[in-house]
Amino acid sequence: MPPSPSRLFSEIATAEPPAETRVVMRRAVVLGGSIAGLMAARVLSDHADEVLVIERDPSDVDDGPRPGVPQGSQVHALLPSGQIQLERWFPGIVDEALAAGAPPPPTDQGAAKIFVNGVLGLPPEPSGTGPMLITTRPFLEALVRRRTLAIDNIRMVYGRADGLVFADRRVTGARYVPDGGTEPIVEPADLVVDAMGRSSRLSDWLADNGWPRPPMQRMPIKLNYATALYKQDTAVSDTWVVVYHTMAGKGRSARIGGINSVEGGRWIMLVAGYDEDRPSRDVADFTARCRQHYPHMFGDIAERGEMLGGVVTYHQADSRRRDFHKLDRMPAGLVAAGDAIASFNPVYGQGMTSAMLHASCLSAYLRSDPKPHEQAARAYFDQVRVIVDAAWQISTSADIELPHVNGPYPPGYKVTKWFGDLVFRTSLADPVLNARLGRVTTMLDHPATLSRPGTLLRALRLGLFRRRTAATPAHTL
Known about the structure:
Blueprint: H1 5-12, E1 25-31, H2 35-44, E2 48-55, H3 80-89, H4 93-99, E3 112-116, E4 119-120, H5 137-149, E5 154-167, E6 170-178, E7 185-188, E8 191-194, H6 202-208, E9 216-231, E10 241-246, E11 255-262, E12 266-274, H7 283-293, H8 296-304, E13 306-322, E14 334-336, E15 342-343, H9 351-366, H10 378-399, H11 413-427, H12 431-441, H13 453-465
Parallel strand pairs: 1-2, 1-8, 2-5, 3-10, 8-14
Antiparallel strand pairs: 3-4, 5-6, 6-7, 9-12, 9-13, 10-11, 11-12, 13-15
């Protein structure tokens, strides 16, 4: 009997490095040098004589936002599960990040504040992953890139991926046009990894060569958000981390906000809305939103803090997933990772963590005695499906409640929603359920763990026979 999704998820998300690895191919090519591509390259370095990463952004882009990551200036979160995988593949990288300027977390557990529907909830339980690593996306990506390219058998070139080379029911290489050039170059490979993000052209390349496209699911979310950086100043606020989320209800719009303390003695602050609720680049509009719709620390920082640069906006139309595991035919010598497989509502912070878990799926696949250049990587995509299903369930179960979203509704939606709402409501005041739900939302555990009898019975008992503990309204803090 195959392992349950929750057990397989736990095996993939382990903190233990592989006990043994071996080379199973001569050459691997990774298309895309963002987090997903870098993590894939790190794993491949244990199994290939040579790993080549083809990255489209020029080599002079280092610690700043890259053109290929349009959301790079926005708030990013590395969930505890992602931090475990990051440390698993790059031992000591968290300490390295702290030494390079990532802010050390306060000793006070209550320094991270989470508001739900205007109410300050219980502080998050310690995840056991060590110091929480909070940085900007460019800072973290630059650190991972330096560690990756320090590995002897990994090399990066710059240019635009232009297609795949097919022969005998397999992918035998990739084409790219070098930065500054006009003619494509063919790079032979035993395995090609698509890490080109949500705008990946892999589906087109497959169809153009007689292979089926992976089915795509979309959930329209129409997310709009704006972000600004501020110089930290204790005279303005002692804020470290704040997460704010209101769900749409009577007289209440769905809104998201966040404040992170990041490297360089800065705060990065985000405000977001859906559909027609669109934060603009106007500083006055940004400041007014912070004061009117969010807890006091947002308004304090926006009104009294020193803004560094301007307001940056971003829009994401949908969450999407490409279900490679459903293909009845696929070529050997090809896998995908990161947003090229699935990208979610970014307010839940699942993107980088999912990419790191995909890398661990790739490691498990390559340690299972595969023949990647001879057989389609079905075992890999079956494992990735478990990660994608978990993240998709977390994000879409919340987004499907937005007034402007009308499905797709999963099987058993009404029952799942009833139990999910019950667990969520009772977790706001119960430390045990709060910790269990927190492990799921931070991708330490699979959502199926919340349906275990002990959790459901506790939620039922609290929901039916106890009054929820009163909490302090957000705007009085």
